[in-house]
Design brief:
mainly alpha
Length: 174
């Protein structure tokens, strides 16, 4: 709880000053690979919206499009430059050519499920698009999974807390 409060305290001035634009930029760069607090941001905008400080529909829409575009940018980077980099520098993270081939096979059979569910895991969320592009996942498959995953992620972490904020506040007041 303390970590979420600290993240919210860091994010709050940007949300207050720039609103949904700040939400879009933060989620975009987090989805592209930057270590930014995506879930904390979504929870924070839920609380801000419940208090009337931000329009929830605008903020969630900004988060949704930021997530899709950030992952899509990562996909394009991976598609047009990722594989050679992985082959050259992958050994530093124990990614050999054989493991990359296995990863490609997994993405061919389960890539849609991986992309949709990776959104819910911090490190996977940041690398999702880069890896999918690097292993040449078909663009339309990636885009479909990216949209579904982004929608689910934004609704779970953005709308969920908004709907339950009164319950949480009652619990933490005790």
């Amino acid at each position: 709880m303390h970590l979420v409060q600290n993240s919210v305290a860091l994010i709050e001035p940007y949300i207050a000053a720039y609103g949904s634009l700040a939400v879009f930029v933060i989620i975009y760069f987090e989805s592209l690979g930057a270590p930014l607090p995506g879930e904390s941001l979504l929870v924070a905008i839920s609380v801000f919206a419940a208090r009337g400080h931000i329009d929830l529909a605008h903020a969630l829409t900004a988060a949704f499009f930021g997530a899709i575009l950030g992952d899509s940018t990562g996909y394009l980077i991976g598609r047009f430059g990722g594989r050679p980099l992985l082959l050259r520098f992958g050994s530093y993270i124990a990614l050999t050519a054989e493991r990359l081939l296995k990863l490609e096979m997994v993405f061919r059979s389960k890539g849609i499920w991986i992309v949709m569910s990776a959104r819910f895991f911090a490190v996977l969320r940041q690398l999702n698009g880069l890896v999918a592009g690097s292993v040449a996942m078909p663009w339309l498959h990636f885009l479909f999974a990216n949209i579904i995953g982004a929608a689910a992620w934004v609704l779970v972490w953005g709308l969920g807390p908004y709907l339950a904020v009164d319950t949480f506040e009652a619990i933490f007041r005790r």
